[in-house]
Amino acid sequence: PVTVQKETEVMEKSTQREASVKVEKEKPIRTIQTTIANQEINRVAKTEVQKAVKDKNLKEKKQDYIEMLQDSIRSSTRLAAVLGLQKQGSLNEDATQALEKIAVSDESSNVRMAAIETLLDGMTPEARQQKIQDFFVAQNDPTLQVELMQMIGQRDELEMKNSTKDKLNAIVEDPFTLKFVKEQAYAVLLQQ
Which residues, in sequence order, are CB contacts of 49 under 8 Å at separation 6+? Predict the structure, then answer.
């Protein structure tokens, strides 16, 4: 706590100097600084310090979530980490890579689906469809296959990759495929 307080005080002092220069450029101050100018400087400095601390905390939280994804034995912890990253908003490169790995290889289908949904948030419709197809090709879990096939089928003008068509045909032709998975694969193929 002491080091954090010292860091904050140092950040605040340097930010006050920067804010002072910023305010003086915007509103020229004569030889005597007024109380109002000092208040403005303090307000700007405080706002910038709060923003810097918040940004630092967000980065640390993202890193914590990534570590939880990689180190946890419990699927509930990994799911909480995925949902935490989803709540954070924009993903950095490390978070995206960790989530893509989890989306394909996690032992829990709930964690995989949450990771997929988190990765798809904020993508353009075209990029989203391509990513869905990539995940579909990589999945062997019947429940997730059906979910992803439903997502694939939601687009009217779907440009389907050859690997997706091959996977759908393999599902349809496999005698051991569950009936509900096979029916969904037929439905998606018929849309083409």
Answer: 8, 11, 12, 15
